[in-house]
Specification:
By secondary structure, the protein is an alpha+beta fold. It contains 5 helices and 10 strands; from the N terminus they run ββββαβαββαβββαα. It has a single domain, classed as 2-Layer Sandwich (Ribosomal Protein S5, domain 2), CATH 3.30.230. Helix 1 crosses helix 2 and helix 2 runs parallel beside helix 4. Bound molecules: uridine-5'-diphosphate.
């Protein structure tokens, strides 16, 4: 919920409370395949946020009457763990969680080729383990990677980040205090491959210029996030290759075998007996 914008959140040099510049993302890391039972999964760490996304399906939908004849249904279940925030959160699903689940589901449905799996469901579970503002956008970023990890065909990945207003200045990727005390929040879901926006929400009051600047800064941030998503997916296959490829064993030294000395066959060539030439009569006479 946006505040009234009176708390000082950015200094004269444009440095925010956590040391970032206006257009800087928080440190982000994405890990693939963290839930072995799922068809696809990802863990995102964005600042202090830690969120797990796990994808199950396409699989049979229950109750069956909810199935769509021509495409798959994408069901998202965004949940904040009770321990993810300072004031314990009630375990009962809140209206906010239902709303976030719905907008993430709508955003993903715009890129997943759902028509390939009619009458099925693709379930996406999003569990926030630690929250620090921007959990809806970080969840969407992780969900998109988890779907790719599950091998579900998509037109492109969705990268999601918010821009917002703190002390009337447009900044990227609000963390918790900025989200609570700032005066505006504009979460964006963006597909860089299609150059399409799949999620756009707005909380607070923006001038037209502030809105345009926020949109531009969020699209730039999403493009940077997209590179991190791609790298995470590539890393998975690099790891698999390293696991599968058996390194060539150094050849064990063969025991030295003394070469057998095979005696050369002795060939006895019997000389043909040549008959001594008989002395002729003349020779005999000479001797005499
Ligand atoms: N929050 C909380 N308790 C709740 C729900 C939210 O303390 O039950 C805090 C939490 O820090 C969370 C922030 O409010 O990170 C909400 O910001 P986020 O961007 O995650 O959600 P959105 O503002 O998009 O609804």
């Amino acid at each position: 919920m946006a505040g009234d914008g009176t708390v000082k959140l950015i200094d004269e040099k444009g440095i925010r409370l956590d040391g970032r510049k206006a257009d800087e993302l928080r440190p982000v890391s994405i890990k693939i395949g963290v839930i072995k039972n799922a068809n696809g999964s990802a863990e995102i760490r964005m600042g202090k946020n830690i969120i797990i996304a796990a994808v199950y399906g396409p699989r049979e939908l229950h109750p069956k009457h909810r199935a769509l004849a021509d495409r798959a249904l994408i069901q998202c279940f965004y949940r904040m763990s009770t321990f993810s925030v300072n004031d314990r959160k009630s375990p009962a699903p809140s209206r906010r969680e239902k709303e976030i689940s719905m907008v993430i589901s709508n955003s993903l449905s715009s890129v997943v080729l759902t028509e390939k799996y009619p009458r099925t469901t693709i379930d996406v579970y999003l569990q926030v383990l630690q929250a620090d503002g921007g959990t809806r956008t970080a969840s969407l970023t992780a969900a998109s990677v988890a779907l790719a990890d599950a091998g579900i065909p998509m037109k492109g990945l969705i990268a999601s980040v918010a821009a917002g207003l703190i002390n009337d200045q447009v900044v990227l990727d609000l963390f918790d205090i900025e989200d609570q005390k700032g005066s505006g929040d504009l979460p964006l879901g963006y597909c860089p491959v299609l150059d399409e926006i799949s999620l756009l929400q707005l909380d607070g009051v923006f001038t037209v210029k502030q809105f345009e600047d926020s949109l531009n800064i969020a699209i730039k941030g999403a493009k940077d996030l997209y590179e991190i998503q791609r790298d995470a997916l590539k890393q998975k296959y690099t790891d698999i290759r390293a696991e599968v490829e058996v390194p060539e064993k150094p050849k064990a030294e063969e025991p030295k075998v003394e070469p057998k000395v095979v005696p050369k066959p002795v060939l006895k060539v019997e000389k043909p007996k040549t008959e001594e030439p008989k002395p002729s009569e003349d020779d005999k006479r000479e001797v005499e």
